[in-house]
Amino acid sequence: MLSGAGGLKRVSPILFALTLATAGWAQEAYSHRLWQAADGLPSDVVQAFAETPDHALWIGTTDGLVRFDGSRFRYYQRENTPALRADSVFCLTVTRDGTLWIGVEGGGLVRYRDGHFRAFTALDGLSNNVVRAIFEDSDGLLWLGTDQGLFHMHGERLVRIDATDLIPELSVHAITQDRNGAIWVGGTSLLRILAGRAQVYRIPLREQSQRIKSILQTTDGTIWVGAVSGLYRVAGDRLEPVPQIRRTVRVLRQTQDGTLWIGSIGSGLYSIRSAGEPVLFAGGPPSKSILNLYEDREGNLWIGSQIGMERLSRSAMSLLPLPGSPDADFGSVFVDRDGSIWACSTNLYRERDGVMRKEVLRGLRGVTVRNLLRAADSSLWVGTEGSGLFRRSASTIEHYTTAQGLSNDFIRVMLQDRDGSLWVGTDGELNHIVAGRVSIVHLPSPVSVMALLQDRNGDLWVGSFSGLFKLHEGHWVSAPLAAALRDTTIWALHQDADGTIWAGTNRGLYGESGNAVTAVTTAQGLPSHFVGQILEDKKGGLWINGLSEVARFSLAELRALAEGRLSRISPRVYSVSRELDSAEIYNGIQPSGAFTPGGDLLYPSNKGLVRIQPELQAALPAVPIIVESITVDGRAVPVAGEIALGASTSRTEITFAPALLGPQERIRLRYRLDGFDSEWQEAGSLRTAVYTSLPAGRYTFVVQAFESGVESPVAELALPVHRLAPFYRRPWFILLLLVLTVAIVMLLHYLRLRRMRERFAAVLEERNRVAREMHDTVIQGCSTVSVLLEASDSLQGDQQAATELTALARRQIQNTVREARQAILDLRQPSTDEENLVDGLRQITETASREFAQSVGLEITGNLPSLSRSCIYQLLMVTREALHNALIHAHARRVEVQLKHDGRTVTIFVKDDGRGLPPELASGSEAGHFGLQGMRERMIRLGGSLEIESRPSSGTVVTVRVTDPARKGARTEL
Predict the structure, then answer these.
(1) How confident is the model at residue 494 (pLDDT cuts 50, 70, 90)?
(2) Rounded to 5°, angle at Cα 241 from 240 and 244
(3) How many Cβ atoms are within 10 Å of 540's Cβ, its own excluded?
(4) CA distance linking residue 355 with residue 605, whole number of Å
């Protein structure tokens, strides 16, 4: 659970000045801030403090444990932290390894380490759950004090060490170690334990008031003991009471400056400095019951009380209330030549010997003084609220009113001319007093005069409610600055060491150098638009105040701004209203600010005189910047290492803050996302950077912290940010896409080459097919005709036989022509009509037997399946080629053709008894024999096989096989 502490909407922090009880202006100043339940604490009763290495302050309250980072609270209670078995946290200790130990009233001991809580109970050796004190000694041993017993921590177990012969039984409230290594334990008694033995100290009072609440050894070696009956010092073997403090002393703390702070129950806060006596802290915390005190690394003093948590921080600002005027109606402040300070308020006050006292001027009783001026002749001019003007010299008093010629009896500003005359601005018009005579100098616009300045040239500048005017040798003249500020209220005028005329207005600071006018507004670094007074120090600084703050500007930066070499300046800002009980600086009557001879600044306010001591403004300590949270698209992500943003991320919020427990008003933060932002962005009070639609890439988120008025950063945070690209823009995807593109191009090239090869193979196959068809039809037919004609010629003596052979040749030519035409038709449009293989074989065998007058037999075995015409045609062509080879080339006397079908395979055997084929022809290795080559190609197209077994003089067997011819394979359609 989170809650803001600073700038809450519900209740503003209470702020007021605290000073040590020392007289005069030498007092040390503190700013004070109070947090209560209304400001975010779970309870007003604050009992313990501890600071962990991450600069977080841990706070123990009666209603839970709190982590505070300087601006926000995070709660740990029973509801969200099971290890906390009770809510009242009584004591806290951080050991050297950074572990936080928590003592809970009724909840025992709890350890917080690496983000995890761990409770120690009776199972771990703890016999009492009310833990009052936790202490780590110089050897790293952890001591634990409870309402019933003293314990050591050994590993993960607690061991009780009291209630023995060496250490008596006691209830423990305080544990510490002195410089000699002895452990001091306080509770129902006071023990000094060394080498395992205890020395008992007794307080010389009645038993019920002996309970010890706190023990501390200061840097001078003194052992201090806080008890129910008061404060004591250890003197030898006895306790010596401190008579000034007789109330219960709950806590003792020595701060870095050597001050001993004493928190009592019922009497408030005391301090002892430089071996002095206890002094009640003047104007201290509102609570009189101090439960705990703690000094953090930054030097802030934290006070736990019954009404909340308070922080005391050393400050350069202090507030001097005026006696008898809790709510001053201020006029002005004036520093006299002798260094005394005058405060013109409801009453007139003067500081003497560091003390402000009421002052009643002779002859002015009952007159309300607005302002003062010490003239060159040492006379004192007194401006009043409706009573005109007085001049007091050593012997006389002169009084000027409207009866003597003044334009108005309400005096706002006075200025002595170089010639000794006096210029007086009133609530109506400008007056000039020369040798006691008053004359009214009419303005171009007759209104109240707010500010007067005589420049180095002797010209008079007049600031009024309706603009700026310049008087030169008795005439009103134009000026660039006056023209720029027409109809603007002028509150202050000043000429700096370089001669620039500066005007403080209700809309910013304006300067004229030469004929150029420079405007300094909030856009250029001004804390507010209102500028009520302008003062210049001896170190080149210009002090400007508004209603609630004072800022110091560097004149060098202002010059750079005027010359365009700088776009924004960084003043050192003193927030008066935040640190000094909502004090508001009064403006409108001059002088409304002044330097003391020592260089301090004084301003009138509704709470008294505000004093700023610039030399007390200590430099900020090392202020690390932490990232409080990272939200990506509304979802919180861990704050660790690099910020990794997904490709779909649309909104990223980074919240950061300085790890500063003290006042953060002096800190200015700016940020930039290197690689994306072109300029630095001022963080303002939100301290959250928001980025939407961030392009993919690597960036560095940089935050810089500046102290007000300091140009170089006091701290810097750099956090890497990586926005992932969409997958289609990532290198692996681009590489994959490139590889795929190359692969596709190569595949397309391969497919193109393959298609070209297939086309070439198809063309080649078609050529071979045409060659086969020509061979098996035309060439075979012509060969048969040629044989028949040769036989006819050889039978010239047998005319009838020759005539028959000639007729047979004629028929063969007709058959050849028919077969050629059918082959051509099949080439153009292959037929799928089925026909009978057996009939085709019979026709082939009969024709061959008749043509060659040889015996050709045909044997058929098995039931043949239905075959396509194309398949039958191919088988017939192969069979005919085998018959022709046997009859023509092998000179066979008998040829047998066998057709078999075993249910799966169709086999055709062509057997002859001829002289056989040469081995190279049978194997198909010899080129030029197209018949055998065509037979093999046809069987390949059918998906079948062709086997030739031939032996010289033993005949030849040609075997043709087609497996599973019912499939009617696609290749037969080619």
Answers:
(1) very high
(2) 145
(3) 15
(4) 18
* Averaged pLDDT, 500-516: 94
d(CA 537, CA 550): 14
* Cβ neighbours of 777 (radius 10 Å): 22
Residue among 912, 828, 904 at smallest CA distance from 865:
904
List C-alpha distances in Å: 433 to 201, 247, 400, 417, 472: 80, 65, 10, 10, 17
Lowest mean pLDDT of 433-442, 583-592, 785-794, name the range.
785-794
Q: What is the pLDDT of residue 19?
A: 36
Q: How far is CA 815 from CA 777, 787, 818, 874, in A?
A: 9, 15, 5, 17
What is the reported pLDDT for 433? 96
Structure tokens given for 280 = 């009640």
> What is the distance between the alpha carbons of residues 273 and 21, in angstroms, rounded to a whole number?
11
Cβ contacts of 402 within 8 Å, gap of 6 or more: 388, 408, 409
Please tell me what DSSP assigns to residue 863. Answer: P
Question: For residue 925, what pLDDT is reported?
Answer: 47
The answer for residues whose C-beta is within 8 angstroms of residue 915's C-beta and 6 or more apart is 890, 891, 952, 953
**Measuring CA to CA, which residue among 513, 496, 612, 603 is closest to residue 554?**
496
In order of start, what are the domains of the chain with their CATH numbers?
Answer: 2-316 (2.130.10.10), 625-729 (2.60.40.10), 832-974 (3.30.565.10)
The residues that bridge with 319 in the sheet, in sequence order, are 610
Q: Which residues contact 103 (CB under 8 A, 6 or more apart)?
A: 48, 89, 90, 91, 92, 93, 109, 131, 132, 133, 134, 144
The Cα 164–Cα 151 span in angstroms is 12
pLDDT of residue 941: 80
Q: What is the pLDDT of residue 966?
A: 55
Burial class (CB in 10 A: 0-12, 13-18, 19+), 842: middle
The pLDDT assigned to 380 comes to: 95
What are residue 839's phi and psi, to 5 degrees? -60, -40
> Given the structure tokens 């046809």, which residue do they identify?
938
From CA 683, how far away is CA 717, in angstroms rounded? 14
Strand order in the sheet with 64-68: 2-4, 72-76, 64-68, 57-61, 46-51
| Whole-structure pTM value | 0.67
Q: Which 8-state DSSP code applies to residue 105?
A: B
DSSP code of residue 366: T
**Cα(470)–Cα(461) distance, rounded to whole angstroms?**
5
The H or E element that residue 934 is part of is: helix 930-942
